[in-house]
Amino acid sequence: xxxxxxxxxxxxxxxxxxxxxxxxxxxxxxxxxxxxxxxxxxxxxxxxxxxxxxxxxxxxxxxxxxxxxxxxxxxxxxxxxxxxxxxxxxxxxxxxxxxxxxxxxxxxxxxxxxxxxxxxxxxxxxxxxxxxxxxxxxxxxxxxxxxxxxxxxxxxxxxxxxxxxxxxxxxxxxxxxxxxxxxxxxxxxxxxxxxxxxxxxxxxxxxxxxxxxxxxxxxxxxxxxxxxxxxxxxxxxxxxxxxxxxxxxxxxxxxxxxxxxxxxxxxxxxxxxxxxxxxxxxxxxxxxxxxxxxxxxxxxxxxxxxxxxxxxxxxxxxxxxxxxxxxxxxxxxxxxxxxxxxxxxxxxxxxxxxxxxxxxxxxxxxxxxxxxxxxxxxxxxxxxxxxxxxxxxxxxxxxxxxxxxxxxxxxxxxxxxxxxxxxxxxxxxxxxxxxxxxxxxxxxxxxxxxxxxxxxxxxxxxxxxxxxxxxxxxxxxxxxxxxxxxxxxxxxxxxxxxxxxxxxxxxxxxxxxxxxxxxxxxxxxxxxxxxxxxxxxxxxxxxxxxxxxxxxxxxxxxxxxxxxxxxxxxxxxxxxxxxxxxxxxxxxxxxxxxxxxxxxxxxxxxxxxxxxxxxxxxxxxxxxxxxxxxxxxxxxxxxxxxxxxxxxxxxxxxxxxxxxxxxxxxxxxxxxxxxxxxxxxxxxxxxxxxxxxxxxxxxxxxxxxxxxxxxxxxxxxxxxxxxxxxxxxxxxxxxxxxxxxxxxxxxxxxxxxxxxxxxxxxxxxxxxxxxxxxxxxxxxxxxxxxxxxxxxxxxxxxxxxxxxxxxxxxxxxxxxxxxxxxxxxxxxxxxxxxxxxxxxxxxxxxxxxxxxxxxxxxxxxxxxxxxxxxxxxxxxxxxxxxxxxxxxxxxxxxxxxxxxxxxxxxxxxxxxxxxxxxxxxxxxxxxxxxxxxxxxxxxxxxxxxxxxxx
Amino acid sequence: xxxxxxxxxxxxxxxxxxxxxxxxxxxxxxxxxxxxxxxxxxxxxxxxxxxxxxxxxxxxxxxxxxxxxxxxxxxxxxxxxxxxxxxxxxxxxxxxxxxxxxxxxxxxxxxxxxxxxxxxxx
Lengths: 950, 122
What we know:
Mean pLDDT of chain B: 83
Structural class of chain B: mainly alpha
Largest sheet of chain A: 2 strands, antiparallel
Order of helices and strands of chain B: HHHH
Number of helices of chain A: 40
Strand order of the largest sheet of chain A: 1-2
Number of helices of chain B: 4
Number of strands of chain A: 4
Strand content of chain A: under 5%
Number of domains of chain B: 1
Low-confidence stretches of chain B: 109-122
Helix content of chain A: over 70%
Radius of gyration of chain B: 20 Å
Number of strands of chain B: 0
Oligomer: heterodimer
Shape of chain B: elongated
Largest sheet of chain B: none
Structural class of chain A: mainly alpha
Largest interface: A-B, 119 and 96 residues
Distance between the termini of chain B: 43 Å
Shape of chain A: elongated
Radius of gyration of chain A: 38 Å
Strand content of chain B: under 5%
């Protein structure tokens, strides 16, 4: 655990940098790249401090529990493989940051760019350093997401958006498969800890689930590493800014699949199924993509296909399940990262300085940009596998290893195909360099503009090229310890004895190599003729197929959705209610019990029966008379009053107060809304429909009534209410148990409620705010008053009465609030009463008059309310109690005497503010709209009067 | 006649009326249906604490028996939230009328089930 801090810092640094850059998004390009660069450099330094021990054989690791019930731990470890990949991620990351600093223009959203880049870096580091496979999956998904952001960085470009979407669909889809594979793997191995899984290869391979696991994991790896037939997303991802391609599509993101194959090599590798599948997919990809690369014209597209081909090579090598092949793969990962990132940067430089990436328009650039040409030529030579460069050594090893496998009993098959692949690799590498930098300029316009860029842009690629050269010249000194440790980590055993050198004497591999180089030269020589031949053969376009599949799925799903989810609210409600009714019937039948229980009933008083009758009649009237809108509101308020009375009768004074005040506010709201809704008689439902709905309503009503009856005639079971009653005074400091429950025992509920109410208020504001514009605005302007109105808009009596009532009502509200903890009242009720007091002013004196005298903002009130309530809860935590614990004590002051102060009061203040804000916001906004409509109507009337006057 | 019968029958009647209105085609009727259902639901929840006369849950040294305070607390917030919901639905209905010129719950673009050809076919 000595390395715990180093390891956590290593993975956390990029995320911290991403956050910092995002927070400083307004800053300059230099600031953003500076933060990213410093973070990468610091990460590199941390990693360097671990390099010694890792190469020495130690595996620094750390584990902290995260979600133990799932087996998900925050476990990190660095072995040879992790060290090598982390070094690539951070090292190339640093160079890419420098490159991007010069590549992007000052006006672009560099904050977003570098924040996404750092997010990606952190995710990649997480993958290669994760010591828990579930944690690795989390980071894996994060790379898909962050690469989506990076590929689509130029949001104004359609191809960028489409490329990003395709990359996300393919790699994200593969990620889903991988999740399944990894979870199965963990279950079979009995642990999600990576080291444990790696040690249980035999157990996993003996399991009947092994083929499933292998298939799912391979889909994940192949999609990420762009293996055939999932390769097509990578060329489209080239719509990304070049620094992104240099980073994601050379050394990191696309290598994640290869990394995972290598990582799980001891568990999954070695079986015949594995060897045949993985090596043949790799081989096919290698040859196929190398051929395609020869005939592309966009620089980045050539590089994309060459990357696919090189990834195929790596996958094939890992698929061989041979130790030396694994070693070749590890070495080639290093080589490829060096030369491919350098080449992407060179392509970016050419694009940046000439304005085009079309190789058919370029040529002879060596004269105009000698530095770039030198860098790119060396890097491409390494890609072609020419001596004395790093690429030569690893390609030689690859060819040598192909001689050791004989699939289907055919020992010549793999060497021949691999040599063909290598030939085309030489071909496209030579063509890239030759058509780009030598010969005659094909198009004078880009040539005239071309020049070598500022040093900041070419130095990163130069450094990588130097690395590519040194990997060929002094491989033992430079790479042997790292490659050895990494190979040991891949194979789960000690590394084989090996020697890296350019010259191994004349052997079959060398002969194959010579054939490949000669063949490549021929391909370049005959390129024009081959290209014509290639263009005559119509190959299926992967993007069109992808789009067709997506389009097909889209239309099918849409049909299925419409079939299941009809766009008719009426039908949906009908089905929902019917299902609920059936469920209740089913439950009642299953219970099979008696309807009426044994609890004795309370004989009803005469007035109660009258009130009940009023409720029944009013409900019937509401249903029957729903078109007489104004009258219906009177019936509704009758129901509301009866319900309030019921609360009074059945010992619930708080509820009665709340119900009656909500009643007033609701009726006001409905009145205001009704004024604006159409009054024309609605289309009548057909009798059949009415009967059907009526039958369903009757069934629902009967069942609910029966349930209520069954409950009411039985004794209650044991509940937590006794605890609440016993502890309200000693624990909560209040005698009104309902209020204590609201602000103390179940204050978290209440907090949620007021947040919902606040959101509802704000949503209503948003809904009404937009009505002034568009179709709604036009309709509002045409609004006609269609109910008889009193000519006196603001009757004097009402205005004066309401102004006198205002202070009185406010006093009642404050009184209700203050006594709420001990007597019926509290924040909810007080807020409603105060809201009614203000709404009366709106009603009597009009919106404009009241609004001018308003001293508070409802939005702020909602925000403050929620904040005060939350702060009260957090305050309890500061004193060591759980969230929202209330505190109270008794004090005494001269004259006033003994009184109580409770933190619950503060919480209730929050409730009060939020409820008041939400109610006022809703009603005030609605009355403003109504006012606007009325004014528009008045204008129309005035216009008409003017027209008729002369 | 017991109070229990009055309350449970009132719940039943309110639910029946609420469902019927909920299935109507015009937004205002649906709002009314929701209002009736809300009354019913609040009454029902409240009744789950049983009906008790003259024993409000206000703690007092001399009193030992109280009504159940918990359903009351739950219903109290439910009443306020009901207002929030009703208000939201009303405004939603208003906005949708202003945008589309129709106060049919499915908007004007969807053929009305009430007077369309589908109805005649039934």
